Please model this.
Amino acid sequence: MTNRTFTMIKPDAVGSGHIGAILAQINAGGFKIVAMKYTKLSEEKAGEFYAIHSARPFYGELVSFMSSGPIVAAIIEKENAVEDFRKLIGSTNPADAAPGTIRAKFAKNIGENAIHGSDSDENAAIESAFHFAGTEIFE
Ligand code: DAT
Ligand code: MG
Model:
């Protein structure tokens, strides 16, 4: 188990002006930011990031949405980071997300759902390395 996970504030939440509120909730949840950038995924990069979902019917929509505007990518640190962050963001479908979670507050629908959180320590490491060089991560 590691103490880090990877997140992206997605184009819908960035476009709606929620970067600050979401970062505040991440900090209030006890997470420390160890790497962060404001960037935009090309269609190719978004497709690569979500390659695991390439057989799913929503893959095209997902890739097009995730490359539609800027995102905030970050590596965050806390004890039990992966599991605790999934709790903080809430269920994939905001209609099912627990009240007060980031998705319950800021997500529009199951596709445009405000924020990403890695689902395992292994994927947290892979996704962090996809976005950040070692020199961009600060203890
Ligand atoms: P999560 O982001 O909660 O880990 P996931 O890994 O199952 O969810 O799916 C990745 C993203 O794909 C999700 O954040 C939004 C999109 N997605 C998932 N299921 C979808 C669906 N049924 N319709 C449209 N988009 C979907
Ligand atoms: Mg996932």
Observations:
- Strands lie at 4-9, 32-39, 71-77, 115-117.
- The CA atoms of residues 12 and 91 lie 17 Å apart.
- The two ends are 18 Å apart (CA to CA).
